[in-house]
């Protein structure tokens, strides 16, 4: 069995395997998954040598953490790196209702996460989005206190822009920024990725397969129904764009999904792709080693030109609230009311 590659999250973060396992899809994000199969998926990843599992306390309204906790029973805690996002609020109907990253709130969120996961600490703790009503310094400072107390090992960020990264890094060491990055989504290359590299912040890249646009079935199950890139017209355009990768995949003897994963991995040793899996065979595929030469990576980038994808990566209301999508160099306004 081939051992997955080991990379460090930034200058100060933990050593992890690349790729990491994104667990969101095991809690209904893209269709129903049986819990027993979800446990088998997590076990297949860990048994295959994987260590990094990414979750959020709002995935399945706590279901995802409970499922991971079940899968980890009897396992050596030191063999797993748990990355947890917090702050996204849900109503009883499951609808998202904004973000809360106040110090008191995040301490409360962590308490419940530790209980559901069945652990005494998480390895990386990060706000899922910037809370416009709370200075990032307050949020990061509170996580840093949890690091001092032993409940958290490292501070992470998610979907924030360069200005916010700088403010956060001035308060405490940041292990990594979690953000979307793929052949179809390369905007971070302009400012965000260079800022991370300047500050020694790693990148955990999600959306590596663009929610199934690359190498997927093209189905509209789960959250894909509201994603602009799956809208009529956009979906057909994007499928034709990705189809150009097929010949390269055949030439290399790999799948299109493996090719796209390898492209993100080739972006640098400071980039760790995080890939979702809902079936054991998908785990086997993602852990299969595929390496690209610089020329091969450049060929793929040319086949799928930057900016050629049709549609935004999130619906308009979500895009408007993404600090990482601001183009004027300033963070989302601090002190604004929370999104409801």
From TrEMBL:
UniProt keyword annotations, A-Z: Oxidoreductase
One Pfam family hit: Aldo_ket_red
Chaperone in keyword set: no
UniProt-listed SUPFAM superfamilies: NAD(P)-linked oxidoreductase (SSF51430)
Superkingdom, taxonomy of origin: Bacteria
Protein name: Aldo/keto reductase
Protein's UniProt keywords contain Oxidoreductase: yes
InterPro entries, per the entry: Aldo-Keto_reductase (IPR050791), NAD(P)_OxRdtase_dom_sf (IPR036812), NADP_OxRdtase_dom (IPR023210)
